C-alpha cells in the first residue's frame, strides 16, 4: 500500500457513509444539498455526487461536519464505521481495532499518554457527567411530586413525599458537586461550558461572584 492510498480510503469511508445514510433517510443528493445550504454551508449537488461515485478524492473538514449534521449521525461514525469490520487503518500503515480508532478520536484510548489536552478533555467529560446526574435527580424529584399530588391514599402520599424529600436532598448534593467542579475549572483558568436551561441560574450566581 502506498502512502497516498490512505487518504483516499478515508474519503471513501465518508462517501460510503454518506450514500448509505442518505438512502436510509430517503433523501436525494439535491435534498442533502438543500439541507447543507439551510445550515449556512452550501455543498453543491455535484460535490455530493462526485463524493459518492469516487470521482472526488477528498472531503474538507467543514463539509464533513455539515454532512454529519444533515445526516443526523455522529461525525466519528462516518470516519470509523463501527460494526462493519474488526480493524481499520487509523493512520497510514497503522491498523488498530475499530473501537480503538474511535476511542483515539474521542480521547478515550487508555494507552494515550497524559497531556494537558487529555486532562482538559477529562475535565469537561466529568462536567458532563455531573450535569447529567443533577438533571436526573431533579427529574426523579419532580416525578415523585406528581405522584404525591395524584395519590388519594394518605399513606401513599406520605410515602411519595418522603421520596421527594430524599431526591431533593440528593439533588442539592448533585448541584453542589457541579458548582464545586465549575469553580475548580475556573481556578485552573478553564472556562466552563454553558449549562442547560434548567441550570442557567447557576451561571447567574457565578457571574455575581
Domains counted in the coordinates: how many?
2
Q: What value does the average pLDDT take?
A: 92
Estimated radius of gyration: 24 Å
How would you describe the shape?
elongated
Give the number of helices. 9
What is the helix/strand order? Answer: HHHHHEEHHHH
The rounded distance between the terminal residues' Cα atoms is 59 Å
Question: Helicity range of the residues?
Answer: 55-70%
Short recap of the structure:
The chain is mainly α.
Would you write up a description of this structure?
This protein is mostly helical and about 210 residues long. The protein folds into 2 domains: about 5-80, 434 Repressor (Amino-terminal Domain) (Orthogonal Bundle), CATH 1.10.260.40; about 115-205. The protein has 9 helices and 2 strands. It has helices at about 5-25, 30-40, 45-55, 60-70, 75-80, 100-105, 115-150, 155-185, 200-205; strands at about 85-90, 95. A two-stranded antiparallel ribbon has the order 1-2. Strand 1 and strand 2 form a beta hairpin. It starts with a helix and ends with a helix. The mean pLDDT is about 90.
Supply the key terms.
209 residues, mainly alpha, 434 Repressor (Amino-terminal Domain), two-stranded antiparallel ribbon, 2 strands, elongated
Any chance you could write out the topology, listing elements then pairs?
Layout: H1 5-25, H2 29-38, H3 45-53, H4 61-71, H5 75-79, E1 87-91, E2 94-97, H6 98-106, H7 116-150, H8 154-187, H9 200-207
Antiparallel strand pairs: 1-2
